[in-house]
Amino acid sequence: MVDSETARTIVGIIGNVISFGLFLSPIPTFITIFKKKSAAGFKPDPYVATVLNCAMWVFYGMPFVHPDSLLVITINGFGLGLELFYVGIFFIYSPWNKRRNILLALLVELIFMVVVIVITLLTLHTTGKRSALVGILCIVFNIAMYTSPLTIMKKVIQTKSVKYMPFYLSLANFLNGIVWAIYALLKFDPYILIPNGLGSLSGLVQLILYATYYKTTKWDEEDDKPAEVELSDTRA
Known about the structure:
The structure is a single chain. Helices cover 74% and strands 0% of the residues. The protein has 236 residues and is an all-alpha fold.
């Protein structure tokens, strides 16, 4: 019999593998940007938001905040670096007004992280209290990020086209949410369970829309106005 801690570790490793794929799923988008030498048609917002999301989860997984969360740190540490790389590509291939917005957003996120770290370490002196504060913030940011795909889902329904809704990103979101929800249940952690439960539901809705409108999508037709939406990604 596999004990719960071993099972949790195994599920966590599987979650890391899926999350790794989830982080890499936007690569086709960036290949397109490289080829066109322009980020027009795509928004950097989800990637900028994911930078803060990953940073928060890395901090949550620290031993002095939430012990025994090494697998949370490893995947989100990797994700943080990759998302910064993605944002850097947007910065290079965007006009100045978008570059300015990216810089301002990153500055706000940096200031916010510093404030959270200082408050957590100086005013809260137990891992239970620190986990509660940082965990609640992680949940809030994850839920906020789930609103990002709503724009593209609305567009899919209106146009009956899934051209700008990446299938593999939606699938990875669904699988990622399921696995991390199981991970959280094996050693009950509501701060991981709630956002990933919602993430799996969001991914499922996206997959249903993809299946529904795949046949009506005109893949080779040029749009009059490029879609300026991208799905966000989330993980524990």
